[in-house]
Amino acid sequence: AIDPNFDQNREKVGEEKLDELRSSASQTAFGDDVAVWGPVDPPEQLGIHGTHVAVDYDICLADGVCLENCPVDVFTWVDTPGHPESEQKVEPTHEDQCIDCMLCVDVCPVDAIDVDAS
Ligand code: SF4
């Protein structure tokens, strides 16, 4: 499961690593304002994406139930070719729109999402 204390236990990835992440994906759909918490070593290790709504890309299986059910469409698909768990991930692109309903946290089959509702 995602570490709920990721913002204390991990470090934000810098621009250079972000560029590497973007170029390893087959599309540049990583949200510009979405923080990435390392370590990252693309394409196999992609870190945690987002802060208020955080998705552990190294756990995400691309089940998609979060994206399909989020009432305010926080998530968008990103292609992640070469990742061992799944070759698509959900990016919390519109995490600023989140209404803290916790639905995504409850439905994720692998507990890849943390929402900081405090
Ligand atoms: Fe969407 Fe609710 Fe998850 Fe926020 S907590 S991202 S509103 S499903």
How is the secondary structure organized here?
Layout: H1 6-9, H2 15-24, E1 36-37, E2 48-49, E3 53-56, H3 65-69, E4 76-79, E5 88-91, H4 103-107, E6 113-115
Antiparallel strand pairs: 1-2, 2-3, 3-6, 4-5
The structure holds iron/sulfur cluster (SF4).
The site of iron/sulfur cluster (SF4) has 13 residues, from helix 4.
Can you tell me the CATH architecture? 2-Layer Sandwich
Distance between the termini: 19 Å
CATH fold-level topology: Alpha-Beta Plaits
Helix and strand succession? HHEEEHEEHE
Defining traits:
alpha+beta; Alpha-Beta Plaits; 4-stranded antiparallel β-sheet; two-stranded antiparallel ribbon; 4 helices; 6 strands; 20% helix; globular; binds iron/sulfur cluster
Description:
The chain is α+β, with helices and mostly antiparallel strands and 118 residues long. It has one domain: Alpha-Beta Plaits. Helices cover 20% and strands 16% of the residues. The protein has four helices and six strands. The chain has helices spanning 6-9, 15-24, 65-69, 103-107; strands spanning 36-37, 48-49, 53-56, 76-79, 88-91, 113-115. The strands form two sheets. It has a four-stranded antiparallel sheet, with no helix packed on it. A hairpin with a 3-residue loop joins strand 2 and strand 3. It is globular, with a radius of gyration of 13 Å. 33% of the residues are buried. The mean pLDDT is 93. The structure holds iron/sulfur cluster. Residues 53, 70-72, 74, 98-104, 115 line the site of iron/sulfur cluster.
